[in-house]
Amino acid sequence: MNSRISFLMCAPDHYDVDYVINPWMEGNIHKSSRDRAVEQWEQLHHILKEHAIVDLVAPQKGLPDMVFTANAGLLLGKTVVLSRFLHKERQGEEPYFKQWFEENGYTVHELPKDLPFEGAGDALLDREGRWLWAGYGFRTELDSHPYLAKWLDIEVLSLRLIDERFYHLDTCFCPLKDGYLLYYPPAFDSYSNRLIEMRVPQEKRIPIAEADAVNFACNAVNVDHIVVMNKATDALKARLADAGFQVIETQLTEFLKAGGAAKCLTLRVTEPVREEVHANVSVESRVLRIEGHLLDSGLINRALDLITDNGGSFQVLNFHLGEQRQSTSQAEVKVSAPSHEVMESIVSHLIDLGAVDLPQDERDAKLEPVTQSGVAPDDFYVSTIYPTEVRLGGSWVKVQNQRMDGAIAITQTPTGMVAKCKLLRDLEVGEQVVVDVQGIRTVRKTESREQRNAQEFSFMSAGVSSERRVELVVEQVAWELRKIRDAGGKVVVTAGPVVIHTGGGEHLAQLIREGYVQALLGGNAIAVHDIEQAMMGTSLGVDMKRGVAVRGGHRHHLKVINTMRRHGSIAKAVEAGVIKSGVMYECVRNGVPFCLAGSIRDDGPMPDTEMDLIKAQTEYARLLKGADMILMLSSMLHSIGVGNMTPAGVKMVCVDINPAVVTKLSDRGSIESVGVVTDVGLFLSLLMQQLQKLTSPYISKVV
Question: Is residue 613 classed as helix, strand or coil in its secondary structure?
Fold first, then answer.
């Protein structure tokens, strides 16, 4: 027996599965045998007494889970942090454990009542005493970890649990002697796994398979080189033997029904203090304000889900509900994260939702210089589609050229500081770039549901419309197109060759001819097949009137390309009378600018196709500037590229037969965007029919 090691246990006199507070209890209410539970507990008790001292705390009627003493608290030396149980079913255990600790000479620290922490079930000391592994995500809050660091004077490493079956850290994580670690990696998020790998050398890590994990192999008791557990596969026992450990299996199936095994049934009460180890915790907290129609728009739910999904924890400090339906609401939320890296990721997402620092906490944006052209500093802030402001010299400055996936470059001008979104390749030495996430805010629309529904373009709600709604969407798009045209606005069309293949070319040509389109973006293929149809009546060699392949038709598009190359450009071919109809013909005749961006798969290409990708992107961006509306017609590659270049506030309609394409565009989160899953030829046909029916209420303004 190792006289230096002592455990606290509680006899299962009142043990049963009386309620459900974890997945293991589901279906096991009152299905545990008291006799078998006592027998299994006594066997574990006997094994441990052979290797250590075992003390007992008196069981209490009505507290069936008190047998799981690991959750009593967390000890280091003669200091203990008492548990604050999340579920009311276990909160009655707290005073009994507190009494035992005080009677045995421990200094007891108690967390705030609204801050859950479940003791050594969610906090495990490295067996060499170098640091404390602390879990969070299900039963313990991340905000408890700074208290542990302070009271126990030890470094705390925070690990996020993501599999509800492994609701406590000790169900999937077991530090062993000599720096070894037994654990189940899928129970943790990627950041936590990376942290584990940084602290524990590969040769010391013993990852287990799911077959061992569900038998609670990690819920083990380690005494020197002995590991006591419920059950282990031969492979796991061999791996532990190679590391110098002896496995003792003792059946604890009755306790698995409540979600516990060997480690849960014990609390190690002799944890020596290493004098050279001191407090350190990387948990970072920040208070943010979110304002808007938080309830009816679901904004508050999205924000809170975003915090937890990205590895953080939250506490709603204040919530002011708008007094009227049209009034905005306001929430102050304390956000906690296990590191600055995770906090930066969370806050960048919250900024996208319009979250800002409290006025008293506002700080200027952090800036770092560009030291190499076309390369941003590390940790640069990545811009979004939403109007953004940065705080410079105590004032908020609006960011120009707003777009997605850029950096925010700051330059000093005679009239003051200027902030612009720039692609990485366009950054220049001498500019400064915004890094980190402080001093940044986005401006989001805050219309109530009623206000949004009252807007003319009300279906634009970042959703995906199915076939049965096509007619409704067409009516709305037609109305908006007429309004924009008559007001002298700008509509940009992004189109793929499917427009031609599905018979939509004639309708797109008519849209251009009647002044509804102010710019066309696409690739080599739409021009090739549009001109093929105009010159030869085919598209991809298929007769567009009869729908059958034409003999030798597979060569038609190459003949078209050759003809265009002979004339030198599409415009020259139109002037020469070679092209007499179609989309490209109408663009030339009506002065509608177009840009054809090339790709590696292009045949030819056409002389107008821009094969320099950088130049093509630049021209796309130029033609998109000032757009009021963008129609994206069956071109995934070009549509997604255009979406990334377009700021929020521009109405976007993505039409494609492939739901994945429209979903991709809708996921931008802009309320002005909608995806329509339908045949693009049908959509354009219906759109022209609807436009012909409309009598514009704005026509008098034009006349």
Answer: helix
Give the amino acid at 395. Answer: S
Say whether 214 sits in a helix, a strand or coil. Answer: coil
Angle, CA 534 vertex, CA 533 and CA 535 arms, to 5°? 95
3-state secondary structure of 465: strand
Tell me the whole-structure pTM to 2 decimals. 0.74
Q: Which SS3 state, helix, strand or coil, does residue 632 take?
A: strand
241: left (phi over 0), alpha (psi -120 to 50) or beta: alpha
- What is the per-residue pLDDT across 336-370, written as a single tens digit (0 to 9) for each? 999 999 999 999 999 988 898 888 888 999 999 99
Amino acid at 302: R
Q: How far apart are CA 178 and CA 465, in angstroms?
A: 59
**Side chain identity at residue 526, one-letter code:** I
- Annotated catalytic residue: which of 264, 587, 595, 654? 264
Residue 478: closest CA among 454, 453, 456: 456
Under 8 Å between Cβ of 329 and 303: no
H-type helices in 459-582, by residue range? Answer: 470-486, 498-501, 505-513, 524-536, 556-567, 570-575
Catalytic residue among 10, 145, 168, 349: 168
What would the pLDDT profile of 224-245 be if each residue is shown by its tens digit?
999 999 999 999 999 999 999 9
What one-letter code names the amino acid at 147?
Answer: Y
Indicate if 340 belongs to the active site: no
Could you check whether the bond before residue 605 is cis, i.e. omega within 30 degrees of 0? yes
**Under a CB-based contact definition with an 8 Å cutoff, are residues 248 and 47 in contact?**
yes
Rounded Cα distance between 495 and 519, Å, is 11
Does the annotation mark 168 as catalytic?
yes
Report DSSP state, residue 576. T
How far apart (Å, rounded) are the C-alpha atoms in residues 494 and 43?
Answer: 73
